[in-house]
Amino acid sequence: MKKLRFAGLPLALSLFLVLTSAFAAGNKETERIDKAASVLRDFGKMKESIPHRLIAEYSGIIIVPRMINAGLGIGGKLGHGVAMVKLGDGKWSDPVFVTLAGGSIGAQIGVQSVDLVLVFRHKGVLTKVKNGDVTIGGDISAAAGPVGRSSSANTDYKLEAEVYSYSRSRGLFAGISLNGTSLSIDKKADANYYGAGVSSHDLFETSKSSSSAIRTLKRNLAAL
């Protein structure tokens, strides 16, 4: 009996580790969604924030909490966030996990953590990112977004850029160059959260998730 009990222990331990690992992975992705929702909530509280009109007229958004922008002669950027697109009925899709990474050369030193929001005119820019990457500053260009909730700010500004960027550090808007930054789908995170076999293309076409974290994210986006 003792031999059978101890012989089964490694198997039981292995199953426990697998289940614990899967649970931790799911928590990691949920935490990313929660942080993205917090970024939108904090942006909404700012006196000068993303204009309502921009969110209403544009069709895609990426939220990257605490993107690291570091440099010592040669700089680098790395951030993990979520992307969503507007569906035909005006609702926002379920979030797709994305990664932004890039480097730059120049006179720079120090480390900066910023909350980054990118607003896209056409959702096709995001839905076409499958196996390959899109380079900001190469494939598409990003301009610093207009700010202001007043009627004049929302109606007088010509919304012509393909992508508008907003970066916030320590509660204030902060400029950040995104040239050369690569945008890619985080397929591992998508699989951890939604299950194997779910593609970014599928997620960008649906708004079916009943997750409380995703509901909060969409509610905060709608509040902008």
Set out the fold topology.
Elements: H1 2-7, H2 9-45, H3 52-57, E1 60-85, E2 96-120, H4 124-127, E3 134-136, E4 142-144, H5 151-156, E5 163-169, E6 172-173, E7 181-185, H6 187-194, H7 200-203, H8 212-223
Parallel strand pairs: 4-5
Antiparallel strand pairs: 1-2, 2-5, 2-7, 3-7, 5-6
Helix pairs in contact: 2-6, 2-8
Describe this structure in words.
The chain has 224 residues and is of the alpha+beta class. The chain has one domain (2-223). Helix content is 37%, strand content 32%. The protein has eight helices and seven strands; from the N terminus they run H-H-H-E-E-H-E-E-H-E-E-E-H-H-H. The protein has helices at 2-7, 9-45, 52-57, 124-127, 151-156, 187-194, 200-203, 212-223; strands spanning 60-85, 96-120, 134-136, 142-144, 163-169, 172-173, 181-185. Strands 1, 2, 3, 4, 5, 6 and 7 form a seven-stranded mixed β-sheet that branches. Helix 5 links the parallel strand 4 and strand 5 (163-169). The chain is globular and about 40 Å long. Residues 1-9, 11-25 and 151-156 have low confidence and may be disordered.
